[in-house]
Amino acid sequence: MKGNRSLCGCWLSLFTLLLPTTSFAQTPANVLLVVNQSSEISRHIGDYYSRRRGIPAANLCRIRVTESEEIGWDVYEKQVEQPIAACLKQGSMQERILYIVTTLGVPLRVYGEGDGPTTETSAVDSELTLLYAKMHGSKFARAGPVGNPFFQRRDQSFVHPTFPMYLVTRLAGYDFADVKGMIDRALEAHNRGKFVIDLSANDDNVGNKWLRTAATLLPGDRVVLDESEKVLYNVKDVIGYAAWGSNDKNRHERHLGFEWLPGAIATEFVSTNARTFKKPPDDWNISTWDKSDQPRWFAGAPQTLTADYIRDGATGCSGHVAEPYLANTPRPDYLLPAYFGGRNLAESYYLSIPALSWQNIVVGDPLCKLGQP
After folding, report:
1. For residue 194, what pLDDT is reported?
2. Global pTM exceeds 0.70
3. What are the angstrom distances between the C-alpha of 75 and each of 69, 82, 102, 134?
């Protein structure tokens, strides 16, 4: 079925049951902004975001580390995690800070031994979510994911120490203009437009089930649901998007041609979409994992790129620096209803992500929110 999903009038009562009874109001005082002094673009992004969002000067954490996207565990611990912990301690901010914001120019991925579900490789941002618990004495193995205590807690406010973690997002794109646009759009967000939900086929694949459920938890007149094998392109007034990205065998175009509204967010079931924030050639396009397509890959993979959604006008997007496995990708049935219902961007995404210390990243201003419809 293509077009607006027609739902019975009971959607409102169903959605009301899922609305939290507590307040989610958070402020710039709850944000720690991390800037890499070794990176010019990181410094520029930090300056711009702190001015536009009104981040207190005491909440700016300056570290000095390589600009390389990939680092080892020794560099991560000594030049990223420990300096950020020192910033939090120096300002006595461990409890007050709820969100950590990294910037383009801060390393993206920690490389570790092994592969598969027990790999020690993970996203820098996902590792930083554990910093609150580590500062309170917890220890974690490097291998494999750690359960997210905030996952599926849609009826609870995100506060410490109830949830012993930080929500970490990243201000990143291909260049400063992309990030500046994303920050500006976050401040212009309003609760309007369509939630576009594009299944890969009309079957019972678990990912498609999550997508269908997301559609039922949103107002019917705000949903564009496609259950066919076709891919939706050129949709206007998009405020939320969930799909299979390049894992949909019928998607052959890198860009969707959407008209994204300010505040729009996106997620897709794709393994390596945050593998890099380096810009591919303008004529580069997605392809397949077939060996014959390997010369066409970019940054080691043929898959869609998180940064393309930001370049094209989205205000937030999730991604993975390496294989997360479907079970650990963001759940659209938690993400989209939470965002529609008043959660900010960071809380909406982390409500939907099952695992920490893993491959997931969230791109966007954590405080971005839509407000009332």
Report:
1. 98
2. yes
3. 12, 10, 16, 17
